[in-house]
Amino acid sequence: MPALAIRAFTATTALGRGRAAQAQALEQRRSGLRRNDFGSDPLETWIGRVDGLEQAPLPAGAGNWECRNNRLAWLALQQDGLMDAVAAVRERHGAARVAVVVGTSTSSIGATEDAYARLEDGRFPADLARPIVHQPHSLGDFVRHAAGLRGPCITVATACSSSAKVFAQAARLIRAGIVDAALVGGVDTLCGSVLFGFNSLGLVSAQPARPFDPARDGLSLGEAGGFAVLERGDDAALLLRGYGESSDAHHMSAPHPEGLGARLAMRDALQRAGVDADAVGYLNLHGTATPANDAVEARAVDALFGDGLHAGSTKGWTGHTLGAAGIVESVFALIALADGLLPGTLNSSARDSACGPQIRLDNARARIRYAMNNSFGFGGNNCALLFGAA
């Protein structure tokens, strides 16, 4: 696959707004998790909540899209010169030649929850009688409008792999000649459906998430938004080199016990880039801190990579941000390439004996040429991305 230039990238999480806030917290090993204070009857757990989101306004004329999820999208879009990069590719190619491809798992369902809670004679209250915020494409429609783009606008909703798969979708659009550039990203915000839904599956821990720890007992949920600008060409300092996708369809919510789909996705990303596994310096693991998922991913990584790989899960920093995890953790992989900061795994005091030596708890510093990000979703929706330094 021809490499694609990454013109700009950013993330906003519980660690703060923009790349610098993410990098500083990663380096200081400072978690963004806190005791759950979301909702009127908070579940006993820890969450990664973005501060100031309730007061974050949308741009003028965007009232139709008003909701927590789109407020976070707008906040994230304004960081790290992202909108300047969008303006530059729009000027070079025209608004119709720049795609918008975004991932989300719940979109603005929080607004729909609120609308049902405040029904008036069986109807949504007037302030929420806006159909666009009650559908999965709410995010994509808002981002297209906010960015002033008129190319294909696609929403990817494949659970927790959603905003990793946007890179693959954008690469195909560019390779097919449909567009010359793409704004990709993902946003998911906390809501009752997420917190209590995951809890009903027995996946939420009452403690901060401890990925790959022998005593891990579940995940911590979070919210986040992030974006990147991709463009045809290989003249940037950071590049998208390959992607791999698979769907093992083993179970509605449990991974394939041998990690088949995960291995296929990672292998295909390497093959598409023409890169050997030994050349990868950093791997951001999906690492949710649930007993089954971590063991399966560790097994898949050990089957493909040598002992020298530095692999870690960053969900102890941000929580599991669901449909936004792919873009957020791609930003972390790009930080590793740009700055040489290789995050380990936070909150874990030991490595499960079932894990291979690739799983690291401590941070490291090294100049690397390739970094990978894994994102795996319910139903066996898997995506691995390979990024490279020019």
From TrEMBL:
Pathway: Lipid metabolism; fatty acid biosynthesis. SUPFAM superfamilies: Thiolase-like. GO terms for cellular component: cytosol. It holds the Pfam family Ketoacyl-synt_C. One of its GO terms (molecular function) is 3-oxoacyl-[acyl-carrier-protein] synthase activity. One of its GO terms (biological process) is fatty acid biosynthetic process. Residues 1-389 form the Ketosynthase family 3 (KS3) domain. InterPro entries: Beta-ketoacyl_synthase (IPR000794), Ketoacyl_synth_AS (IPR018201), Ketoacyl_synth_C (IPR014031), Ketoacyl_synth_N (IPR014030), PKS_Beta-ketoAc_synthase_dom (IPR020841), Thiolase-like (IPR016039). Keywords: Transferase. Belongs to the thiolase-like superfamily. Beta-ketoacyl-ACP synthases family. This is Beta-ketoacyl-[acyl-carrier-protein] synthase family protein. It comes from Luteimonas salinisoli.
